[in-house]
Recover the amino acids of this structure.
């Protein structure tokens, strides 16, 4: 995420709402972030930081500031431990995502995405379409995602309403 000066990375603080986090290079959906959320906290460290775009999924409030300013404020307030914990948590989430998606077949990726979505609260699940979310997060073709979801619904493994995940009864390990 960059500011008016395209070379200046930003730290974005989302105080309320939901945002979709997309990698700019290929528009891959990396995840859904629920406030409070801080994005770009480590952008000042590396000249080759990855750029992301945040797209509001609900009305949001927040602010942004240059990442270097965020670093200075963290230093002044002596909250490096808290910043480290936050970045460690984000690293954990990215590692979990990699384990679930990289090197796995299409069904395993779809299954992992469904299990992640099942962990969301009902309000979030009611806002996010299953097929679109899985396709945008994995780049698996819409036809394959649709085929797998139809088979899982028909086998009563998942319950969906209007394209939204209602519940998971049990997901087979293999398809």
């Amino acid at each position: 995420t960059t500011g008016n000066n395209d070379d200046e990375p930003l730290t974005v603080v989302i105080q309320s709402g939901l945002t979709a986090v997309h990698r700019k290079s290929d528009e891959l959906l990396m995840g859904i972030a629920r406030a409070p959320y801080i994005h770009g906290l480590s952008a000042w460290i590396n000249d080759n930081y990855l750029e992301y775009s945040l797209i509001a999924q609900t009305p949001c409030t927040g602010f942004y500031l240059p990442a270097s300013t965020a670093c200075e404020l963290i230093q002044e307030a002596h909250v490096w431990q808290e910043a480290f914990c936050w970045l460690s948590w984000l690293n954990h989430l990215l590692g979990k995502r990699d384990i679930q998606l990289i090197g796995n077949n299409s069904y395993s990726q779809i299954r992992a995405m469904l299990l992640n979505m099942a962990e969301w609260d009902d309000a979030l699940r009611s806002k996010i379409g299953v097929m679109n979310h899985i396709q945008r997060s994995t780049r698996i073709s819409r036809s394959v995602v649709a085929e797998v979801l139809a088979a899982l619904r028909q086998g009563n493994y998942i319950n969906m309403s209007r394209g939204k995940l209602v519940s998971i009864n049990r997901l087979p390990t293999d398809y």
